[in-house]
Amino acid sequence: MPGWRVPGAYLRIVGIMALPSAHPSPPPGAAPPLDQPQAGPAPAAALPLAPPHAGAGLAPARARPGPVSGQVFPSEPRGLGGRRRTYALVATDLDGTLLRAGDQVSARTRAALELARGAGARHIVVTGRPVPGVRGLLARLGYDGIAVCGQGAQVYDAAGGRMLSALTLDRETAATALGKIEAETGALFAAVDQDGTDGHTLIEPGYRMAHPTLPARPVPHRDSLWERPIAKVLIRHPELTDDELAAAARSVVDGLATVTMAGPGTVELQPLGVTKATGLARAAAQLGLGPADTLAFGDMPNDVPMLRWAAHGVAMANSHAELLAVADEITVSNEEDGVARVLERLYG
């Protein structure tokens, strides 16, 4: 369908609908769903069509105290009069943050999310995984809220199984960006996440998936990657580290795409200006909320914009140094229920 365009990206609004503010309680004895929104501000009629260039709809980045690397400490957010502050929105990354090994959410973390919801907070999952690679996981976890997927390019209604909005990376722009990076670094291995709820992850010969459990479809050559619209490109280098590859890519694709390092073996090219922060801003606006209402958790460089956007940003102890440097607070690792410990302190 026709859409608003920025260089190298297309915004597609799909099946906009007002989301319910409450859901039935689970049957007796059942584990509580990962997300069960409480009654709150009336949802907007549609997601705002803010231009997705860098900084669109975002609060200015705030100066951070710069915690000492490796230090684990609580930071007690305070409101007016020095009272302990809580937040109306809890935004959590998945891998390395909310999830333990094996894509599991612990009983303690589920209970802590229930505690926050009981205090009136909403929960939004914000993940780098595309919708097709995460919707099954969300269903298994009982999550039925809004999910920001694909590094902020996709806003997805988990309850209805519907894409609310999606940004795509222009395929000609993507191919040009790949060529520029290879001119700088030598040959790369590439993959793409296709657009849509039914899209595939296509991998060219030599590309190895960082998450081998995620579905992927091999293709015979690179030209096959561009057979339909794409959400993002994934790249790997046979010799460079992830940080080295991300730095090299940024140096040559400025103005074409956003480069993100999302985890081990996961360097990605997204539509220009798209980040987890821009996606979260669109999703939060659907709930009538903004950065001042938001508590955010993450562990990797792709979470930096989100933590800077939120009123209070929490990094896991297992986080990349780049995220630790901008966090307001460092909690314990995902395997030690770091998200739960912060929620228990703030909402208990």
Primary descriptors:
single chain; alpha/beta; Rossmann fold; 2 domains; six-stranded mixed beta sheet; 21% strand
How far the N terminus sits from the C terminus, by CA atoms, comes to 47 Å
Strands across the major sheet, in which order? Answer: 1-2-7-6-5-4-3-14-15-16
The helix content is 10-25%
Give the CA-based shape. globular
Quaternary arrangement of the chains shown?
single chain
Per CATH, the architecture of the largest domain is 3-Layer(aba) Sandwich
Helix count equals 9
The CATH topology annotation of the largest domain reads as: Rossmann fold
Percentage beta strand: 15-25%
Order of helix and strand elements from N to C terminus: EEEHHEHEEEHEEEEHEEHEHEHEH
- Structural domains: how many: 2
Helix and strand content put the structural class at alpha/beta
Largest sheet: 10 strands, mixed
Radius of gyration: 19 Å
GO cellular component, one term: cytosol
Protein name: Hydrolase
Biased composition (Pro residues): 24-35
Organism: Streptomyces gougerotii
